[in-house]
Amino acid sequence: MGFNIESLFDQYGYEVLFLGLLLEFIALPFPGETTMLYAGYLSYTGVLHGWTALIWAFTGTTIGMTVTYFIGLKAGMPFIERFGKWVLITPSKLEKTKKWFDRYGNVLVFIGYFIPGVRHVTGYFAGIIGSPFRTFAAYAYGGALFWCVCFIGLGHAFGPQWEKVLHAIEHHSWKLAVAIVLLIAVIWLVRRLIVSSRRKARS
């Protein structure tokens, strides 16, 4: 297994969950799902305590997301204003994106944990567009708790079969991503239809 998760847990225990998940959101390519599934398996065997593992995982995840939010808030917009034109990010495009994020971004922050690559950028982006911290925290921390409970819970529930669960998730993760995109598209379309019907009713 890449990263040798077993060896890391043997040496550092719960700290693997905290530091690994924290650093994953900032920069380190760390296998968060694998680590939590294995931690769940270790709780199944009695090596780790499940609730303690959940607390360490949740704390590392939320701190990592919070750090990315404030990096985006403090450094993101100045960077985009200076270099955005070189990557075709114009002020008008940024404003449109901000309006989209105000409507649907919070849902993406919550469910983005389950989409590889997405969870690593939502915190930065929320900070860049100036999303209110309380709103961001509510969705980010709620999503983090749900994510950690799911993977540690699955590892505990399936015990020795945890690697088969991991392979199944990796094999079908693209289907989840497609389903989420379609769900967001449907929500957007329904809202457009409702707004359009209300305008017609007034006229």
TrEMBL record:
Residues 30-156 form the VTT domain. InterPro entries: DedA_domain, VTT_dom. Belongs to the DedA family. This is DedA family protein. Pfam families: VTT_dom. It comes from Cohnella boryungensis. Keywords: Membrane, Transmembrane, Transmembrane helix. The chain crosses the membrane at residues 50-72, 136-154, 174-194.
